[in-house]
Structure formats: structure tokens, C-alpha cells
Amino acid sequence: MNPAPPVVGEHVCAVVVTFNRKLLLRTCLESLLAQTRPIDHILIINNASSDGTEALLAEEFPQLEVVHMGANTGGAGGFHEGMKRALEAGYDWVWVMDDDIRMRPDALEVMLGYGHLADLIQCRKLVNGQVLVWEAIWDANACAAMTYTREASFDNGRDWTSISYCCFEGVLIRRALIERAGLPDTRYFVIGDDTTYGFIASQHGHLIYIRYAGVEKAAGQKAVRSRMLFYLGVRNRFLTYETFKNCGVPVNRNLFLMHQLYFVFSSCAEILRDPKLRNWPNLKAPVQGFVHGLQNRFGKPYWIA
User: Fold this and answer.
1) Whole domain around residue 267: which residue ranges?
2) Which of 42, 138, 161, 302 could hold 153 in an S-S bridge, CB 3.0 to 4.6 Å?
């Protein structure tokens, strides 16, 4: 099915969350300003960057609205703040993204063309020029979205497919859906907040993933195996477990904990195998993530000021 012409009169606010990546942010903003369908408003949430981001925005993008947060609230906190402000300002669609992507010039025009089909539209992503395989299915007891080895829906000729997860890298969300689903959970800080938000949103509207590749990921930008990733990758699944239970998903707690322990052990094994990762803070991180998840200790990681 081909997209329809975008609805005339609908207003779009792009929300960009940034932290200490001013050069990537510049590229992202330049791509937004070059859209064939002009964006009605661009809102930047600066998560207390210390790399000169504030000066760059003042000098090169004085026409854009910027919110300088008093502290780093993580991606989850930044998206929460930005989406809240976009709703308060009355925009019909919120285009949500990190600072390390750029959107193809016709991205917004194409995505709005699917607005008659869905309340949330996610397009494909290119990483180093190659389409990223992103189609997935939830493993309820692991509380994780498991990516397929190929994008079966598109390989089978479909132009779009329904999903129950999302990624805050160029996702377009209808205002009414945010009003029903709520705002992202700030307790995640980073990692998993967008995937789980997509699940919550799927309980309140229709989410689709389209064949069109409109997002380009900056070369070399990928999930860095780090203390934070090892810690939050484990801890934040407890938040997803909480969400599933609240939504009525029949998750077995014992199976979930078994999955979590396997995740902890496999993470520790990975750390021990790799000399670049092999250090005490990294090795402790997945274990601490498991313990803190059990204790409901969420939010900013304890070692971050």
C-alpha cells in the first residue's frame, strides 16, 4: 500500500535530545532544516552538555528552541521533557530522535504519508550505508525484544508491518497516542526506555514499521560495550517486567529471573574474554544491575554525579 498525501494543516514538532555530541548534533539539525516538508518547530533538549553544545546552538542555530537541563537526565528524561513540552504547545505530531542520526530530506514527508494508517510510524535505518535489521518479536519472559535475522515482512513484499516496540531514533508519534500512553519513564535513564514505550503505546494505538529507510546513523556510532551498558542492560529489564505485569502480560517471575541470571553470567563471560573490557567496574556492573533491579533502585546510575 502506498502512502497517502500528508494531511494539510497538521503541525509537527521535532524533539532532539543531546548530550556532549555537538558535532553530530549539528549534522542532525542540518538534516532537519533541509526537510522537503518543513518542520513546524524544532525543540532541542540539552542534557547538561559540557562540550560547548550550548555555544554551538547559540551561534549556529539561534532560531531553534533550546531547553538547557540543569542536570543530565539521560535520554529517557530528555525525551520525557521534550515530548511533554511538544504536547503542551499543541503539536499534532512529535518527531523524536537522538543527536547522532540524520534524516533523509524527504523523511518527514514520506512518514506523514502513512498517518492515515497509524499513530506511530517508524522507518528503517541505515548504518554505514547498510539497512539495519530491526524487525523483532517480544520474548515476554525475558522482557526483551528479540531481533530477527532478517526483515521477513519486507522480504515478503510488504510495505509496512505492525509492531509493538519503537526506537527513539526518528520515530513519528501522533499527539493523541502520547496523551493515551503517557510519557517515557524517566527511571530508565537510558537503554530500553523507547522499546518499552513502544509496547505501552501499542496498547493504545496502531504502530507500524515502514520499508522506507529515512534514518542514517552516524558512522561508527553504535552501542559501546561499557560499564553503563552492562549495568543498565540488566537493571532496566526489571522496569520492563514491571510494565508487562501492569499491562496484564502473563510473565512468569521465576523464568524472568532465570533469564536475568543467564544475562548476568553471559555478560560477565564476555567481559572476561575481552582484554579491553576486563576490569573490575565492568565485571561488577551486571551483578549490581541485577541486585539494584531486585531492590527497585532505578534512575541515574549511582556513580554518575
Assistant:
1) 227-294
2) 161
